Amino acid sequence: MPAPTPDGWRAVDTYLADLLVGHDDVLEQALRDQDAAGLPSIEVAPVNAKFLHLLARIAGARRVLEIGTLGGYSTIWLARALPEGGRVTTIEAEPANADVARRNLARAGVQHRVEIVVGRGADVLPTLTGPFDLVFIDADKESNTIYLDAAARLGRPGTVVVVDNVVRSGRVADPTARDTQVEGVRRGLEMLGSDPRFDATALQTLDAKGWDGIAVALLTDADAPA
């Protein structure tokens, strides 16, 4: 079996995205506007965005919490998954990013389903009231344990929790990699593995964003002690 190469997995990602995701002028313009505004290109890949969308639908989610809005690309996908009356609450630390996201959400016609809360996640999360049906964590990795604890507090048994960027090009399993983001990811994964409030697994991904992965957890008992 041939080993995967960057050219190979990007070709597969393009094939799958073209076949199963397709093209969407609104979403593609959102990415162009994000790039034009100088935001980093760290949004989820299209196949992963549709995965989030389908997870929200499978879970029957009506209330979604997103930690890390960026330009609103994943927010649009999540908002489109919700039934009438559904709501996404998304937290963004940078006001300029939130401005880009608001314009993208308005163009997508989902602004009525989304509340953008500007501020650091650690500061905003204690002010929110649950329960949320799905929580997507895609912000600073150093705070993953804070975000997971908040997800448990703001969720309910059966809430789906997704954590992005948990492989970090393989560095998560490299004992010599000690940067703060990798350390934050490890602490989050260790929490998912040991905290009785979560039942979790993780998947490696090879896509347009390179070698990374996601953790997916089911909240088992939001009231159990950590």
UniProtKB/TrEMBL annotation:
CDD domains: AdoMet_MTases. Keywords: Methyltransferase, S-adenosyl-L-methionine, Transferase. GO terms for molecular function: O-methyltransferase activity; S-adenosylmethionine-dependent methyltransferase activity. It comes from the Bacteria. One of its GO terms (biological process) is methylation. Gene3D superfamilies: Vaccinia Virus protein VP39 (3.40.50.150). It holds the Pfam family Methyltransf_3. InterPro entries: Cation-dep_OMT, SAM-dependent_MTases_sf, SAM_O-MeTrfase. This is O-methyltransferase.
